[in-house]
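Sat 14:20. Reprocessing the chain from the morning session after the first attempt stalled halfway. Input below, unchanged.
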Amino acid sequence: MSSGSARYPKDPIVACCHWGAVHRKGLANQITQFGGHPQISSQAYRTVKGKKYAGFTYAFITVVDVPDLNPRFLAPPYTASVAEGSPVGTLVLTVTAIDQDTGIQDIIRYRIEESGQPNPFRISEVTGEISVKSDIDRETISGSIILTVRASESQPNVHGAEAFATTDVQIFITDINDNAPLFYSCGTICVEASQFRGEALENAVGTVQINMTVKDLDQNGQIQLEVEGEDKAAFAVTPSVIHSESKVQLVVKDSQKLDFETKEEMVVQLIAIDMEDTTLRTTATVTVTILDTNDNSPTFPHNTYELRVAEHSPMGTVIDTITATDLDMMDQNKLTYRLLPESIRKYFNVTLNTGQVYVTNSTLIDRELGSLYLATLQAIDTKNNIGTTVLEISLTDINDNAPFINRESYMVFVKEGEQVKLQIEATDADDPETENSKIVFAIEHSKYSNNFTIDPNTGVLKNIGMLDREALDPKMKGKIDLNVTATDRGTPALMTMVKVIIDIEDINDNKPIFKEASYDFSVKEGAKGAFVGFVQAVDLDQAVDFNRISFTIVSGSFGNFIIRTFEYGAGYQGNITVDPDIELDHESLPNQFTLWVEAADLSHSKAEVMVKIKVLDINDERPEFQPVGPVPPVKENSTVTGAVGSFSALDKDGDHALVYHMVSCDCHCNSTYEPCDWMLMDRKGEVTVNPAATIDYEECNRVRIMAQVVDENTEKGENNSLSQAEMLVDIEDINDNVPQFLNSGQIFVLVSESASVSTSVARVTATDRDSQEKIQFAVTEVKYEDTNSQIKPIRTIFKCVSAEVDDIFVADIQSIEALDSSTKGKYFVTVSATDKGGLSTSIEIEIVIVDKSFKSRLRFISPLADVLRNREDIIVALVTATKSAVYVYSIKSEEAESRAPGDTIMEAYFVYSNGTAIDSISVERIVSQPENYVVLSKYHLANVATVDAVPEPPNVWRFVLIGLVGGLVIVLIVLSTSLICTRRNYRTKLKAAKAMKSTTMEDNQRGGPVVPGTNKYTMEGANPVLNLNIDTVTDLGFDEEESNVDRIRIFVLGVQHPNPYSTLPPIYLCVLVEQVIKEEEEEEEESSYIEPLSAALAQRANKQNAESSQMMSFTNPAFNTTDL
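Finished this time. Tokens:
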């Protein structure tokens, strides 16, 4: 029994929620269960005198139930499954609920609560059985349905409310395969579709986007996709197998089938097949638009074209027009043409856009040099795809080869009565398309030659009449010898002969006989199918089977005529007509035809007759221009009144009236033709100078006249020429223009240190508008401007070296002599230009001088070879850094100097275009900038140093003046000191005598006297300094005294001499002269001075016994007037 309220007979007793204790005042009660009924055990107790006394009793209580509990479902939760499409009434499951009130057992009612969702199920109100109420489609109601089932008691509970309980019942809908796969086009939402479109580039591989999704609404559906349709071979589908749902792409399987030019749209059907039930399938149509690409090369109608043109045809002769086609739309009417190889273009070429093949050089196309030219004609589309064809251009020839018979003789065996038919074969090496190679066969006259005939065109030899062996001379043994000639139709005709031996046997028959030996007919040109005439023949045979004749044109027709046979009288007639598809042209050769008509019976006996047909002329030909011959030039400013030249044309028709019209008159000015009015032309084609126009060669040097000719008597077709004629009239120049300089105002820079003889310092250019002119340049004046802006004329130190480059005359201004490297300032050089007619003009050019003070030394810490190898890159870097022109003077290694080995010095000048130079300090500052140093450091640039200033070279004229003044001063000094010098000379000689005397007094001298102060102290000449053997006779000791004077003299005279005073300026020279004079005066005042020249009298030792009265004299060749 569940817990709840209980009614007891005693109010103090209250039951708790479970079996347990029940308390009462003064009692201790315990409720227990006994035999299924509540039992109360009660204990009473009291305390007497502190002692507790107790007693027990038991009570049984019966609890009566009331409907106070809700029903309860048994074994929840509930799940079941049912297949979709189950019949109505199919039991799904049963739910059961009970009344929890014991003993009441109220009736339970079942129902399904509304959920707002489709519910294909119902429940039995009484039994709780849930069954199918309506059709179940799993694809529309999802995979399962949760139903809320309510179980209610039929009676209200103790509170008067409905007692109920609910539970969820989940019913799974099992799938059956009842849906075919479907195609969807998905955007924001997916929509079922059967038509899809996509685009693909032709010949492209990859996928075609068609925005297709395939679904199978059945659970776990396996779908197979197949491609069908006319174009299925080009495509595949991916994926080919789908699980339930997937996006689908069309894949190009064979890109070669995607050809826009073949098919612009391709249609395939995609079939989605349920792999479980293949009857469930759906088809969608996919249309693929093929987008055109430039994938086709141009193509020509033929792989090879055989073209013919007469040798030496005029330049511009159109041989043929050959065009190509391109299937790509973007290339329509945009093809260009080119002829290869390039070497063929000196003979033939093709127009760029029209494909006309024409002659480019009349002289070179000579058949004797080459009869066949092979060329490749290219057609190029906008994507540079190329199509080609081969051109075989044959040249026609003149008659220079005789026919050639390939056999020495012929022999034929024939029975009597049979026809002799022997083919004489001959060839001609001349062009087969001309009369030069056409061979005419003939039989040379002989005794029996009249019994035979030979086709002049085919060379078929036949007999005339019956051959009767008995009619021949028995000695001939039946053999007839004939000489057959093969002659060409050239001029002059060339001939070859061959021997023909006919061995006759005997038969007897007849052949057809023409009524006439030959026929002559005429027909008008241009008449298709016109009747020409008829031939007649009979056969003497009487039998019908043998005398029936048919006519055939054997040769000479060239496909222009046909013959039909008709019966007449005792024989047959052959009507000759023009072929209905042929239109004869009198002007096109041949205009006379020689036909050989054959009459044959049924036994193949034949006869031939010659039919000559003449084509009569009508006026239907267009006139044709004759080549314009050389036209004499017209001098500019000319007023010629006569005809300059004339056009002429031919008309193949006999009756014509030609009138000439000028189409255009263009002048060749500045490499293009422009319309002008310098020439006029009359109706007869004569071209004259327009008296109202002024002809100027310098404006235009050629006139081109284009003309058209019209035949006013034309009866049929066009009356004008097919092409226009061109006449070129050259304008002859006269000398009426002076030369013109092209570089006016240009400034040139001259680095004087590098200016040696013939160094180019400037360049001027000039032109002369007159043709065939030669300009001579000359330097007419040179002026120099110093740093004080003082300008003065100087001598001509420059010259002109003339040259011609592409009609522009160039004068290279070169130095005549080496220029002074210390010169500063400018040169103004006047250059004249004179043509061969004496007309001249001049220009003054400015040459700015850059002296040595602007030279910079760039040190590179790298070997000389590295700097030389990187020279150009270093110069480019320096130009970029300094924004100036760089003139490299020298590059040398410093290995021989004291600096680190391997360093390289580059000496250079930096000059702006206006002639301003940059000093080394500025160069150092520029290259030291970070952005420039980063570049130059790659080449190991260390620093930029200043070149030591070199003193200016001495002014020659200044030193001449100083020398003259110095000379006068010296003369005065010499005159004033001459007495002193004379006294000193005698004093010196006296001292020498004393020295000689002293030497004779020394007995210990070895080998001779010692001469102090000379180079000969002993006989061995032991001077430890010079070690020179000086003759004592010629050296009197004047060298010491004269040494300073000599040095001064050498300097004054300006002689180049390696003495230490050669570089002293004049002011120091004067001081030095004064110093020397002062020293000499001081020497005279010194009494203790002893001149060591006693040895000069050494020879006196050998003459001590000589007369004492003899006069002593000495000659000193080292002292002369030059010392003065």
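The first strand starts at residue 21 and ends at 24.
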